[in-house]
Amino acid sequence: MIRPPANMTAQEMGRSTKAGRDFVDSIIATAKAIATDSDHQHRMQKCLCKACHYRSMLSAGVAGAACTSRPCMRCGQNQHYASTATDVLCADCAKATDLCKKCGADMELRMRQTWPVPNEPKTSPDD
Ligand SMILES: [Zn+2]
Ligand SMILES: [Zn+2]
User: Fold this and answer.
1) pLDDT by residue (tens digit) across 8-58?
2) Nearest-ligand number for the alpha carbon of 100
3) Domain extent listing, the chain
4) How far does the centroid of ligand 2 lie from the alpha carbon of residue 107, in Å?
5) Which of 32, 72, 86, 102 is the most exposed place for a label (fewest CB within 10 A)?
6) Torsions phi, psi for 40 (to 5 deg)
């Protein structure tokens, strides 16, 4: 494949500089937000781990536009999504297990000795 040279104009270089600066700024802002968990309350409401919640600050994510359904990995109840970006848990199971709704990680990204199993009865909040 052969590509023509880029247009070396002030406008193009300015655009690239702006895009690069925006990318770097968003990485730094996201890193600061993760370090302090600055959006903790909102993150808890959405049942997302730090990775899934703050990753959304970097990009909207790459997902297909097809409506998709997927059963919750714990209770098996079918969940419906507006795109192919599906979650592994329903909201109730995410809350009950303190796992990320989207990816199933520990909400605070702590490695656990034991992990919840499918269809287990609701456990005490501090087990
Ligand atoms: Zn569930
Ligand atoms: Zn997650």
Assistant:
1) 899 999 999 999 998 899 899 999 999 999 999 999 999 999 999 998 877
2) 2
3) 11-97
4) 7
5) 32
6) -50, -50
Angle, vertex CA 44, rays to CA 27 and CA 74, nearest 5? 110
pTM for this model (two decimals): 0.72
The answer to whether the beta carbons of residues 66 and 51 sit under 8 Å apart is: no
Summarize pLDDT for 72-90 with one digit per residue, the tens.
999 999 999 988 889 999 9
